[in-house]
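re: the backbone from monday

yeah here it is again, tokenized this time
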């Protein structure tokens, strides 16, 4: 049996990480992996998380299994954080998952179970694992226009025009905020126009929310999410706590479904629990407990919000400074898009050859599509990056 297996293509980001580790140059810069880094190049543990871990260590009395759908308190605090009572409780179902990736996988499984002939529409480009999982599950999908490679900004008109090919009942996969990999987001007006289009064309939104709080703020980043949740007959959302709580290795995510018909809630809830059982049975509990402690404790929540704001402001400052330095070096405004983008990532528009030159000549590592991790830059490495970008002629 095993000899019949075929070699699978390596994950591009993980392969890049390994190549970076093997590079002996002291001034090398990793802009590939999507983790937040401080000025010292470290991914810190948020203070509120450290305090919550101490509380949990002192209070936890069992390591027995949790429920199939996870801890109810975790589901409730995440519901409040994301939706803020914009949707009646009796319309919402949820289940704790192993990270945001686990939530996305469960969401795809759910759509295949509920509507096997529906097509999932994904942005071009999107997070590569979206397409990888869809292909693995053999779920039909198509791409919609999203990013203008010339302006490095959202092509909203092209997005709407390409989604006109979707059939009623098809699913539209959207990034809730801080689009990965482009960094180009919808404005509030564009969210409103998209919401009307989705409702009028009887489409189902599936939101990937991985960066709430990393763009413009905790509430600002879910404007479109809450709008679609209120207005659409059906709605699915996969959320991650990895980035905004800094608990990457705890694998903490959640999947929500919302239906216009409250009678469906029990069926949806039991289906989410069933899917958990088929894939991993009980979700990991530690990260969910930390998030719950933080969001339910006024002091811890305030501390977390302040530190999250500091991370967000740091990324915005890096964007402004990098755009300004590139304007100075290039004597042009062609990099102004960096200041407009939001979140951890931006596509800078380099070719694969230019990315290779950046890596070989300048020891700067990024994915072949030229996605850079803004959160991996600091005031010490920014001048080196700006000089290299101009040097290779981007």
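seq for it, each position gets an aa:
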């Amino acid at each position: 049996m095993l000899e019949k297996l075929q070699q699978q293509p390596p994950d591009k980001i993980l392969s890049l990480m390994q190549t970076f580790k093997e590079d002996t140059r002291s001034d090398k810069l990793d802009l590939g992996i999507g983790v937040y880094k401080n000025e010292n190049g470290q991914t810190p543990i948020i203070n509120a998380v450290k305090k919550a871990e101490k509380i949990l260590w002192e209070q936890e009395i069992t390591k027995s299994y949790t429920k199939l759908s996870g801890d109810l308190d975790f589901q409730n605090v995440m519901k409040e954080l994301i939706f803020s009572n914009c949707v009646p409780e009796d319309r919402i179902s949820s289940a704790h998952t192993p990270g945001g990736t686990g939530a996305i996988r469960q969401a795809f499984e759910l759509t295949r179970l509920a509507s096997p002939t529906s097509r999932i529409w994904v942005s071009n480009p999107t997070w590569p694992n979206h397409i990888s999982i869809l292909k693995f599950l053999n779920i039909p999908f198509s791409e919609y226009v999203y990013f203008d490679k010339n302006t490095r900004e959202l092509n909203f008109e092209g997005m709407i025009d390409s989604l006109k090919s979707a059939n009623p009942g098809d699913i539209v996969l959207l990034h809730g905020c801080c689009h990965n990999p482009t960094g180009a987001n919808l404005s509030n007006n564009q969210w409103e126009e998209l919401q009307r289009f989705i409702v009028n064309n009887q489409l189902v939104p599936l939101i990937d929310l991985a960066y709430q709080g990393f763009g413009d703020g905790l509430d600002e980043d879910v404007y479109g999410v809450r709008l679609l949740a209120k207005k659409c007959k059906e709605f699915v959302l996969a959320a991650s706590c990895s980035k905004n709580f800094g608990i990457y290795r705890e694998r903490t995510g959640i999947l929500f479904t919302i239906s216009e018909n409250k009678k469906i809630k029990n069926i949806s809830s039991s289906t989410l629990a069933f899917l958990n059982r088929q894939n991993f049975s009980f979700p990991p509990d530690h990260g969910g407990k930390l998030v719950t402690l933080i969001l339910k404790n006024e002091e811890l929540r305030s501390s977390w919000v302040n530190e999250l704001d500091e991370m967000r402001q740091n990324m915005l400052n890096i964007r402004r400074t990098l755009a300004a330095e590139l304007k100075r070096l290039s004597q042009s405004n062609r990099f102004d898009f960096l200041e407009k983008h939001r979140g951890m990532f931006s596509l800078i528009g380099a070719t694969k050859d230019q990315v290779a030159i950046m890596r070989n000549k300048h020891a700067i590592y990024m994915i072949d599509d030229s996605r850079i991790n803004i959160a991996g830059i600091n005031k010490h490495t920014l001048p080196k990056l700006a000089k290299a970008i101009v040097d290779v002629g981007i």
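The longest helix spans residues 298-330. Residues 191 and 224 are 5 Å apart (CA to CA).
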